[in-house]
Amino acid sequence: MAVAYYNSQVNAMHYRALDWNNPNAAMCERETTPILNMSIPLEGSNDHRYFEIAEKVIHSMKTPIRFLNITTLSEYRKDAHPSIYNKVPSPEQKANPAKYSDCIHWCVPGLPDTWNELLYVYITNQY
Fold first, then answer.
1. Which of 13, 20, 60, 83 sits in a 20 to 30 Å window from 3, CA-based?
2. What InterPro entries does the record point to (predicted)?
3. For 30-46, what is each residue's pLDDT tens digit?
């Protein structure tokens, strides 16, 4: 019996607007589209050597485990964070989004639903 291993490694954090060529942006605030140029290496990106190590370990295990890597999908979704809108923003928060934007957590519904749909499809296709 195979075990599905679902991992996003470390959450993508979109604090460097220079990663998507927008030096005037206040981190992820007011972002409405994903990063469309996936050839751009992201400065705050995860170290993908960890995935190579994880895959080697998983392939050497006696119990079969599948590695569903959703990290790259998440790294390019600068638009999927609540920014300053995770609650009603104060005038101070609206005036300084670079200080108050939440660029770590994810909006629901949104990207976490995509992760769940991918896992659901994977599981239903296996059994």
1. 13
2. TBL, TBL_C
3. 888 888 887 877 665 66
